[in-house]
Write a structure and sequence with these properties.
With 324 residues, the protein is mainly α. It has twelve helices and four strands, in the order H-H-H-H-E-H-E-E-E-H-H-H-H-H-H-H. The protein has a four-stranded mixed beta sheet, with helices on both faces.
């Protein structure tokens, strides 16, 4: 086993994730500064604690609490560990990663999935553990290891944490604005116009005083989704470079098949709903007739954090050609 010089790093996807969270960070910093001004000296201490709290993503007890209470993971049982550890040792031996660098966790789920989170968490579902052969299970673990080696896990969590104050205030403002507009509908048009002018003036003042940062926030979710899709491709390539390309392609085929089955089940449920509503003369009541699948909108595709099956398989082709 060759130990790599760097156990984790930060590739272009990780750096891009951090840069795209910068507008959110500035808004969060503004929120925290305003809070510190309101609370005085105690508020300043809270701001300093918030600024240094990001290092906790590499603090193992904090990670354990995150894994249990947020990700709903648990430690493997002895039988699960006996099944998982030989496969994991093969993966880290190929990657040159020390055994103690990362921790294995289990998610009690009936779906084929895995997760890499924080600084040291590698989780896999019970379904994947029970149903995947060793090679495919190794490919899944190598993919999640690729997220860690590329810095995707810690950069995403760090960006999310420092964006949280601004995001909470943004949600609160949206709730207030929604309530105001509902109230304006119930009131006279004159009062509604006054409220619209007040909120419009506030929005213009915010944009001019914050150099258009709120406008950038509208585009951030789409840019972050694009970076996340790139991170998935990089993690796939990491697993493929370790020799798991055919196994990873097999896993992707199973995931694609499961998604198609879900779409078919949803279409069948829609058919039953049509029959229940319109009876035997509804548009989809004929034997074998199924409603056409709902096309995914362009905006929803742009917000997807994972590339589609064909895109991922296309990026695996150079590695698959090495394993005829």
């Amino acid at each position: 086993m060759h130990i790599a010089d760097h156990q984790r790093g930060a590739d272009a996807a990780a750096v891009g994730n951090l840069l795209l969270h910068l507008p959110n960070l500035l808004c969060s910093l503004l929120v925290m500064v305003l809070l510190s001004a309101f609370f005085g000296g105690i508020g300043l201490i809270l701001v300093l604690i918030w600024l240094v709290s990001g290092v906790l993503i590499f603090h193992r007890p904090t990670e354990s609490a995150l894994a249990r209470h947020v990700l709903r993971l648990r430690y493997p049982t002895p039988d699960e560990r006996a099944r998982l550890e030989p496969v994991w040792r093969e993966v880290i031996a190929r990657a040159g990663v020390e055994d103690r660098t990362y921790e294995l966790w289990i998610e009690d789920s009936t779906s084929l999935n895995a997760v890499g989170a924080a600084g040291h968490i590698v989780g896999v579902t019970r379904f994947a553990l029970d149903n995947l052969p060793n090679g495919e299970l190794a490919a899944v673990l190598a993919h999640e290891l690729g997220h860690h080696v590329g810095g995707h896990t810690w950069s995403s969590l760090l960006g999310y944490w420092y964006a949280l104050p601004g995001r909470l205030v943004w949600r609160a403002l949206r709730g207030v604005a929604s309530g105001v507009f509902r109230a304006s509908r119930a009131c006279s048009c004159f009062l509604g116009g006054i409220l619209a002018l007040v909120f419009g003036g506030f929005a213009i003042a915010t944009l001019s005083s914050l150099y258009g940062i709120p406008l950038l926030l509208l585009a951030v979710p789409y840019a972050l989704a694009a970076v996340n899709r790139r991170a998935e491709i990089r993690a796939d390539q990491h697993a493929a470079a370790l020799g798991f390309a055919p196994m990873l392609a097999a896993v992707l085929s199973k995931l694609h098949y499961a998604q198609e089955q879900q779409k078919a089940a949803a279409a069948q449920a829609a058919q039953y709903a049509q029959y229940a509503q319109y009876g035997p003369y509804g548009p989809y009541a004929q034997q074998g007739a199924v409603p056409p699948p709902k096309e995914e909108g362009r905006l929803s595709k742009l917000l997807s954090s994972h590339p589609d099956y064909h895109t991922r398989l296309h990026h695996l082709q150079p590695y698959l050609q090495q394993h005829p």
